[in-house]
Design a protein that fits this description.
By secondary structure, this protein is an all-alpha fold. It has one domain. Helices cover 75% and strands 0% of the residues.
């Protein structure tokens, strides 16, 4: 007698991860444009640009991961890390395509930030559900 095949269940909700990643990417682009207009219209020094860009990456990843965790309702750490990795991968690909040679400056720092902010956001999102 043959045993029935076991179905492999994916540990993450892919639609929640894609939704969170898309929201993180859109919010990062929006806040980047907003920041560029602020720098253009005001006499702010560009010395703070790196820190504010780092903040935009963290906040966008945290927000997208929170939405993914809330939508999934469980396993917030997994969902948040997945959003962080997708966000990092997409921003890295975008950087290599449109800004060749300029994408490697803070690569490990951005990776760690996206992973940590994503994990924290996913856990927060599950807590909100």
């Amino acid at each position: 007698m043959l045993s029935p095949k076991k179905q492999i269940k994916c540990p993450v909700n892919l639609s929640a991860v894609l939704k969170g990643s898309l929201i993180a990417l859109v919010s990062a682009v929006f806040f980047s444009f907003l920041l560029s207009f602020i720098y253009w219209l005001t006499p702010l020094s560009e010395a703070t640009l790196g820190w504010l860009a780092f903040f935009i990456v963290g906040a966008s990843t945290l927000g997208g991961a929170a939405i993914a965790g809330k939508e999934a309702g469980s396993r917030g750490l997994y969902h948040g890390l997945a959003v962080g990795l997708v966000f990092f991968s997409m921003s890295l690909a975008f950087s290599f395509v449109f800004f060749s040679g300029h994408g490697c400056a803070g690569l490990w720092q951005e990776f760690l930030l996206a992973a940590i902010a994503g994990a924290a956001g996913g856990v927060v999102g599950v807590g909100l559900s």
